Amino acid sequence: MDFWPEFLASSWGKEFVAGGFGGIAGVISGYPLDSIRVRQQNSKCGSAFRVFRNVVATEGPLSLYRGMAAPLASVTFQNAMVFQIYATLSRAFDRDIPASDPPSYKGVALGGTVAGAIQSLIISPVELVKIQLQLQSKNHKYNNQTISLKGPVDVTRRIFRQEGWRGVYRGLTITVLRDAHSHGLYFWAYEYTKEQLHPGCRKNGQESFQAMLIAGGLAGVVSWISCYALDVVKTRLQAQSQSKSAKYHGIVDCFRRSMREEGHGVLWRGVGTTVGRAFLVNGAIFTAYETALRFFFSNNNNNHANIETENTF
C-alpha cells in the first residue's frame, strides 16, 4: 500500500509515470494515421485518403485500430522508460551543471540518443506484431496456409513457434538505427523550440500549454523526417515472413530492391501522413508528460505537508 506514495516521491518515479501517461496519449491520438502510414509504406496503394477510403469500405473503420492492443499494452512501460532514462542521462553527460539549472542541449541530445537505442529492445518486437496485424485483412496467409486473425498474442506465438527469438526480434538492427539518432534530435528539438516559444521556461518549468503542444509537435515532425527512410525499410522487413521465399534479405538488400523496383520516391511514401500524425501525437505526448509532472510535483509537496502535520501529533 505504501509503494506508490514512496515511488512518486522520487524524481525518477515521477519521470517514469509521467512518461507512461504521455505514451498512452500518443497511441490513442495517432493510431489510425499510423495504420494508414504502414499500409502506404508496404504497398503501392497511393494517397492516404485512398487508403483510408479503401480500408473503411472493405474492412470497416475499426480496422484502423487493429493491432493497437500490442503497443498500448507496452507503451506505458516503454515510453516511461525512455523519458526516465533520458531525464537521468541528460544530466549525467553534464555533471558540472547545477541541479537547479536545466541540462545543456548537448546533454539533452546525448541522453535522447542512448534512450532511443535502449528502448529499441522493447519496441522492435511490439512493432513487428503491430505491423503484421495492421497489414492483414480478415484472413492472413502464412507459408501458403490461410489463418484467421486472433490478436497480438496469437501472432506472437505463431512467430515464435515458426522462427524462435530471432523471428520475434526481426528488424531490431534497423529499429536501433532509426531510433537512436531520431530520439536525440527529438528531445533536443523539443527543448530548443519550447525555450524559443516561451523564453526562460526550461529553468522555471512554467511553459504554456501552447508551447508544449507546438514544441512537441515540431519535435515529432523533425525526428520522423530524419529517420523516415529507415522506417520504410523497417516496415517492409517486419511485414514479411522470415522464410526462404522472403522478398528482402537484410537492410541493404531491402534498400536496393525497393529503390530499383519502385524508384527513390518509395523511401518517402506515406511521409505526409506521418508528418501529420507526428505533430498530433507528439504534441499530445509532451503535453500529457509535462502536465503529469506538474501534478505529481504539486501533489507530492501537499503530501509532504500532510505527513509533517501528522507527525506533530
From TrEMBL:
It is a multi-pass membrane protein. InterPro entries: MCP, MCP_dom_sf, MCP_transmembrane, Mitochondrial_Carrier. GO terms for cellular component: mitochondrial membrane. Pfam families: Mito_carr (PF00153). Keywords: Membrane, Mitochondrion, Repeat, Transmembrane, Transmembrane helix, Transport. It is found in: Mitochondrion membrane. The keyword Repeat applies. Gene3D superfamilies: Mitochondrial carrier domain. The keyword DNA damage does not apply. Its main location: mitochondrion. One of its GO terms (molecular function) is transmembrane transporter activity. Belongs to the mitochondrial carrier (TC 2.A.29) family. This is Mitochondrial arginine transporter BAC2-like. It comes from Nicotiana tabacum.
